[in-house]
Amino acid sequence: MWLINGAEQTALAADDRAIQFGDGCFTTARVVDGAVRFIDDHLDRLEEGCGRLGFTAPSRELLRAECEQLATGNVRATLKVIISRGAGGRGYAATGLSPTRMLRVSAYPAHYDELRTRGAVLALSPVPLARNPWLAGIKHLNRLEQVLIRAQLEQTNADEALVLDTAGWLTECCAANLFWRKGNQVFTPKLDSAGVEGTMRRHILRLLASSQWQAHEVQARLEVLLQADEVIICNALMPVVPVRQVQEKGFSSRELYRFLASGCE
Hints:
By secondary structure, the chain is an alpha+beta fold. Helix content is 28%, strand content 29%. It has helices spanning 17-21, 39-53, 60-71, 111-118, 144-153, 199-209, 222-225, 255-264; strands at residues 2-4, 7-8, 24-32, 35-36, 76-84, 100-107, 120-124, 160-164, 170-173, 177-182, 185-189, 214-218, 230-234, 240-246, 249-250.
C-alpha cells in the first residue's frame, strides 16, 4: 500500500519533480513488531537530504505519524519513505512548491537471514560512482548508478557489489555501507565525495565510539581492504552482515561482527 500525501493511492502527478528530475530523497527502514527501528535516524536523514537539496522537509511530526501508521500491525516489514520537492515548476526552476510525501510498507527481504549465517561474497563492480561533494552522502532519488551496478552484479554469483568511485577509492556496496577491521582498528570509507551515508553506518560509528575498537573514516584502495582481518557490510534492513569473500580473498573472523550484531538489532 502506498500512502501519498496522507491518502491511500497509487497515482502521482505527472509533473512531480520526483518523476521529472529525481528531485528528492528517500530512506528505507526496518519494521519490527509494529515499530520502525531507528526512526529518529531516518527522520534526520530525510530532513538533511531535503535541506541539502534546498527545500524544507515535511513536518517531522507528520512524517513520524505516517511512518508509525504504516508500521502498525507488521511483525517484520520494510518501510520506504520518499520525499520530492513537489509537483510543478517551470523547467529546472522551482519555488514555492509543497513537498510530496510517499510512503509504502512491503515484505522484509528474508535472504538477509541467510547472509548473516553464511557470510556475503563481494565482487568488484566495473561501474564506478561519480565524485560530487554537493550530492555525496545523501540518498537522493537519482539512483541510476545503483541500477547499473545491480545489473552488473546479477551477471555474477556474488551477493553484493564492491564499488569504487571514479578516482579508484573504496566507497560502498550497491545497497550497503562497508567496514573492515585490522587488529582493533576499524575503517570505513570517507563519503565526502561519493556514496550514501547510511543510517546503520551512523549507528555503527556511534557504537564504535564507546567501545574497545578505534574507528576511522579513510580514503583507501582495494588492496587495503584485501589485507584486512575482517570485513562487514551494513544497511538498515540487514542490518549487519559478515563478509566471507572479496574477489578471491576469504575472511573467516567474525569478532567485530559479533560485537556489532547485538547492538544493531
